[in-house]
Amino acid sequence: RPGAVLDFPLGGGQSIIDALVRGLEKNGGRLMLGTHIKQILVEGGRATGVQLRSGGVIRAHKAVVTNASVWDTQTLLPSGAVSSKDSDKSLSTPETKSFVHLHLGIDATGLPPSEELGIHHLVVNDWDLGVDGPQNVVNISIPTVLDPSLAPEGKHVVHAYTAGNEPYDLWKGLDRASEEYKRLKAERSEVLWKALERVIPDVRKRVEVSMVGTPLTQERFVRRHRGTYGAANLPGQWPGPATAVSGLFACGDSCFPGIGVPAVAASGVIAANTIAPLAKHLDALDVIEEFMAAPGGGYTKYKK
């Protein structure tokens, strides 16, 4: 569509994470890295905290909020915490497919200037196959076009990926140290190289750093059920923050409003608003009103 754009945050995805952490800590929260959850504690029919894999326990003051996927959350609940009907409903949630990622660091010598090279590119191999056709749609991002600080001078960072259309079952059960896995990585990433060559024809000769991510990478490092991008609910079928367990709320890409960073962030706001008392809602509205009315603030900006 003419004029359509994709946003990209200065500083990369880490800048979004940093902003969320600042907000968390500003309001008295604490981020605990490397703290794996073994189980959500449910006592007397209510979620009361979490048990850590290390053996420790964190008790909830008011509620437990999970942003794990709907499928992964079910594996964290103790047996009998929810009815088989509710469990089956959650586990039968339709899922999107996974990804193949190609992360590159390349020499930018002689490439067109940034405004000509462009930051985002979309390659559709066959319009008749649809966006979820296996390896049919490739997204390309060259974030250093917009933010050169992300790479050394004279270099570009490139990320290409199949847009949630990679079947997990092709990879299921493979040993990540095996030759078969390496072969499949090379085979399934070839579509990404070919898409990139439509933007930078000699990209293979420019490569200085190259990493391929697969559905197994997504499953392992992002701890995602089958490496999925998220739920594939139809409009009107996305659940809200409430769950079948009292005191347990959900946010993330299995909840309304859906998948993707903006939607997931919104789901977190919805979960927080659901838990917060009315007085906190009114306080938040006062802060928003003050911001919007400030000189040069949101009100002035949006009025224009």
Give a verbal description of the structure.
By secondary structure, the chain is α+β, with helices and mostly antiparallel strands. Helix content is 33%, strand content 18%. The protein is built from ten helices and ten strands. The protein has helices spanning 13-26, 70-76, 84-91, 114-117, 179-197, 203-206, 215-221, 261-275, 278-293, 298-303, and strands at residues 37-43, 46-52, 57-59, 64-66, 101-107, 120-124, 137-141, 155-162, 207-213, 248-250. The chain has a five-stranded antiparallel β-sheet with strand order 6-7-8-5-9. The chain has a three-stranded antiparallel β-sheet with strand order 1-2-3, with no helix packed on it. A two-stranded parallel sheet has the order 4-10. Strand 1 and strand 2 (46-52) form a beta hairpin. The longest helix has 19 residues, at 179-197. The radius of gyration is 22 Å and the shape is globular. Mean pLDDT is 92; it is low at 299-304.
